[in-house]
Amino acid sequence: MGEANPVFKNIIASIVDGIILISREGTILHANLATEEMFQQSRDHFLNRPAGDLFPGQPELQNKIEDTLQNGVAYHQIEGQGHRRAHSTTFPVSITVSPYINDQNQPEGAVLYVRDCTLAQELEEISRPFDAISHLGTLSLGMAHEIKNPLVSISGSAQLLRRKLPEEHHKFLDVVIKESERINRMIDRMLNFARPLDLDLETINIHQILEEILLLEKQSHEAAIQFESVYDPSLPQIEGDGDRLKQVFLNLIQNAIEAMPDGGTLKVLTRYHTDYAVRSQVHPDRRKTILVEIVDTGLGITPENMKHLFTPFHTTKSQGNGLGLPLSLKIVENHHGKIKVISQPGSGTRVQVYLPVKQENA
Ligand SMILES: Nc1ncnc2c1ncn2[C@@H]1O[C@H](COP(=O)(O)OP(=O)(O)OP(=O)(O)O)[C@@H](O)[C@H]1O
Ligand SMILES: [Mg+2]
């Protein structure tokens, strides 16, 4: 290989993606600076080593590189995993393999063009639930009315028929009526979720909202669940939509209870939180945030389930709609707040709701 033109050398060194030249035997001959940064190792570690060291355990990729070396075939954007030796971690990459043609126009190896896809993948994961939300908006609004109208006729007719039929047939119609009501409730929640949220702002006492919910829940789950509340008495009143926030905490408390089928402890905690990261610097109150935590000693959430918590219709429950958390997130985000879920399978879940004391545009 002759001495490279200095401009080309600089271009190769400046590219932020990895460029790796490999020999006919499949060992690494050259690599640009970005390769070292991407794989977090100096070139001494991988020069003259098989290319497979950077992408271990991926026979399909190896076969494609082999095919390029043997037959001069190019492959575009193969998905793979790069390996960082120092931390024994992997990261997603997209690789293009081209035959390397020497000055005599002869194939003499292969060039790998490696792109780190970590950020792209993260962005895709973050935006996925939101894509689903916006699709859901259009879809559900259209569908909901189509379903709701016949549903009214179905349950209306069932009620009428129930009155006319002898009692031994009632139980069948009760199922029709009960299930129609369930579908109706689900559609209402979906519509609620799909419509833009207009908040009805007022000054609210979050403790009062929590107590109202807990009072009801305590009555229905007396035996199995221990309820504990640890409130910060100095917590200020906040600006928010009381009914919507009640919906949020009701969803979260119900989730916590449903996660403890064999009983357990449900703790509700409140405290003051100074959020230095909040955007507005103008009004000192706008930087103040309260934190409400719903803590259960239930089943916990697996890492796989955790990824989809806020995706509409994602549920692990036979009777669940998978709308509680996405709807809660929507309401909290409309209040410029955030929800954080911390959980370990087997040792319960802690859901944190951060809410600013004052709304931005108030
Ligand atoms: N406190 C919790 N402990 C364990 N798993 C939870 C908890 N909260 C939520 N989850 C998991 O997140 C999933 C989604 O919750 P979400 O509230 O959105 O829907 P759902 O409870 O299944 O149904 P819905 O609330 O619509 O009746 C649940 O099915 C459950 O797997
Ligand atoms: Mg729920």
Automatic annotation (TrEMBL):
Keywords attached to this Swiss-Prot or TrEMBL record, sorted alphabetically, are: ATP-binding, Kinase, Nucleotide-binding, Phosphoprotein, Transferase, Two-component regulatory system
The Histidine kinase domain sits at 142-359
Task: Give the E.C. number(s).
Answer: 2.7.13.3
Read off the InterPro entries from this record.
Answer: HATPase_C_sf, HATPase_dom, His_kinase_dom, HisK_dim/P_dom, HisK_dim/P_sf, PAS, PAS-like_dom_sf, PAS_fold
SUPFAM superfamilies in the record: ATPase domain of HSP90 chaperone/DNA topoisomerase II/histidine kinase (SSF55874), Homodimeric domain of signal transducing histidine kinase (SSF47384), PYP-like sensor domain (PAS domain) (SSF55785)
- Tell me what reaction this enzyme catalyses: ATP + protein L-histidine = ADP + protein N-phospho-L-histidine
Positions in coiled-coil regions: none
First and last residue of the signal peptide:
none
Alphabetical list of NCBIfam families matching this protein: sensory_box
Q: What is this protein called?
A: histidine kinase
